[in-house]
């Protein structure tokens, strides 16, 4: 069983479109995260949710909107896609309240390409 | 502001040889320190972490890391690498405060020579 899964694995779209990436974890964790990894492999946290509540919101354009329908899911919706949004997006989860001492488990990533 | 530096972009090591990957951080107090591994096409997996206590920490897959406060370093080591260790390795730091967040280094690509 996959612990943290993401769909789709690849996403190719045109500039200006709106797209969503879904994340699900079956570990029973309380906290979930979204990270962005750019073409230089630089990894940066975007958001984290604990029990469906937003706890970290980094300086991310408001075109990005995370949504957590329940604590096992954290989806990422992106409006008006731009070329600079092309990256690999990773979802992760951890037990506890989002303190950084908890081990994070990462999904396989979604490679987004904006043309 | 906290930062983490991995000076080596790419390292090639012969299979069976020892390995050391460097990581330096910038922060006034002792941060939380992590090493993650990313295999091709995969997400990140935690190798080991340090919060306090014994400065030599053991992780999975035979990796270890040593925290050296005087050098602001947390270098990753393995006595004998295996071909399956080929991956991208990331050091990360959390400087605990009311607005703490995790900061990743730029990564070191590890290649294994047969």
Mean pLDDT of chain B: 92
What's the main sheet of chain B like?
6 strands, mixed
Q: What is the general shape of chain B?
A: globular
| Alpha carbon gyration radius of chain B | 14 Å
Secondary-structure content class of chain B: mainly beta
Question: How many angstroms does the end-to-end distance of chain A come to?
Answer: 34 Å
The total of beta strands of chain A comes to 11
Distance between the termini of chain B: 41 Å
Mean pLDDT value of chain A: 92
Helical fraction of chain A equals under 10%
Q: Strand share of the residues of chain A? A: over 45%
Strand content of chain B: over 45%
Helix count from the secondary structure assignment of chain B: 0
Rg of chain A (CA only): 13 Å
**Tally of alpha and pi helices of chain A:** 0
Along the chain, the helix and strand elements of chain B come as: EEEEEEEEEEEE
Structural class of the helix and strand makeup of chain A? mainly beta
In a nutshell, what does this entry contain?
The complex is a heterodimer of chains A (115) and B (114). Chain A has 115 residues and is mainly β.
Q: What key phrases describe this protein's structure?
A:
heterodimer, A: 115 residues, mainly beta, four-stranded antiparallel sheet, 11 strands, B: 114 residues, six-stranded mixed sheet, globular
Write the layout of secondary structure elements.
The complex is a heterodimer of chains A (115) and B (114).
Chain A: E1 4-7, E2 10-13, E3 19-25, E4 31-37, E5 43-50, E6 53-57, E7 64-70, E8 73-78, E9 87-94, E10 105-106, E11 110-114
Parallel strand pairs in A: 2-11
Antiparallel strand pairs in A: 1-3, 3-8, 4-5, 4-9, 5-6, 7-8, 9-10, 9-11
Chain B: E1 3-5, E2 10-14, E3 19-21, E4 24-26, E5 32-38, E6 44-50, E7 56-58, E8 64-68, E9 73-78, E10 87-94, E11 102-104, E12 108-113
Parallel strand pairs in B: 2-12
Antiparallel strand pairs in B: 1-4, 3-9, 5-6, 5-10, 7-8, 8-9, 10-11, 10-12
């Amino acid at each position: 069983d996959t612990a943290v899964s993401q769909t789709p694995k690849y996403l190719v779209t045109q500039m200006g479109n709106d797209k969503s990436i879904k994340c699900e974890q079956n570990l029973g964790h309380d906290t979930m995260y979204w990270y962005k990894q750019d073409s230089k492999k630089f990894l940066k946290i975007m958001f984290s949710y604990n029990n469906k509540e937003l706890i970290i919101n980094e300086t991310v354009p408001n075109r990005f909107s995370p949504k957590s329908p329940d604590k096992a899911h954290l989806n990422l919706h992106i409006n008006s896609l731009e070329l600079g949004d092309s990256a690999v997006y990773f979802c992760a989860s951890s037990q506890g309240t989002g303190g950084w001492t908890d081990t994070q488990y990462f999904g396989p990533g979604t490679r987004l390409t904006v043309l | 502001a906290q930062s983490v530096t991995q000076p080596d972009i790419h390292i090639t090591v012969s299979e069976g040889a020892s390995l050391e990957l460097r990581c330096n951080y910038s922060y006034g107090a002792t941060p939380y320190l992590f090493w993650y591994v990313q295999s091709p096409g995969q997400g990140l997996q935690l190798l080991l972490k340090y919060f306090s206590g014994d400065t030599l920490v053991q992780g999975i897959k035979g990796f270890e890391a040593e925290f050296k406060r005087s050098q602001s370093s947390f270098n990753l080591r393995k006595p004998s690498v295996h071909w399956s260790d080929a991956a991208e390795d990331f050091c990360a730091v959390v400087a605990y405060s009311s607005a703490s967040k995790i900061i990743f280094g730029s990564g070191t690509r590890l290649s294994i020579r047969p």
